[in-house]
Specification:
By secondary structure, this protein is α+β, with helices and mostly antiparallel strands. Helix content is 59%, strand content 16%.
Amino acid sequence: MNYGDGQRHELASVMSTLARNLEAERNETDTLGAIVQTAVNTVPGVWAGGITQVHRRQVSARVPTDEMVRQCDEAQQELGEGPCVDAIWQRETVVVDDMNAETRWPRFAARAAELRIGSMISFRLFVQEDTLGALNLYGDHEVRFGDEAQIIGEVFAAHAALALSGARHHRQLSESVASRDAIGQAKGLLMCQHRLGAQQAFDLLVRASQQSNIKLTEVAAWVVAEHENPGGASRPQSN
């Protein structure tokens, strides 16, 4: 689809403003909320939106702009079908032009019609080889999502995917640093308490982990907690 200079300038201005605003957002939820709200305000025909996220096959709604969005995700989780589910597991973009005439997911379509969803478009949030969820945008009964809506929506979906991926990487990094620190503290305590070398202290933690079937990081955390509160630390549960 060919865009005129005015349309290109308008979209560039929107994305530039969004990028500046995202720099000021303090957390993942605020960032995703800003992306979804801007998509709702920008993509032609859209009146509501949200992000569907999947963790261990469980579907959950994030940053919905309307309670209907949350109910829609709950329906797809309950029924195991719908455009968000297909966007996440089967294809990158799923378009529903008329929910009343939709036959791909008859049970979901009936539920969606009750929620006053006329049309819908779902974009898979995709970063490298990991599927993270879907950006879902909702329109009224007379709205048909054409090439323009799909192209603009894909831009916002890319922003949302990067935000999710970045937040996940930050969490993993924080967890890794915390685990390393806990193991380091536990090693130091064992070295002092039992006059062990660094490798001996680490080997002791590993053997304790293996014999008790408890994660190494949890064993280390227990050693530190027991040192700070002798006899009062809760024993970690075995795996």
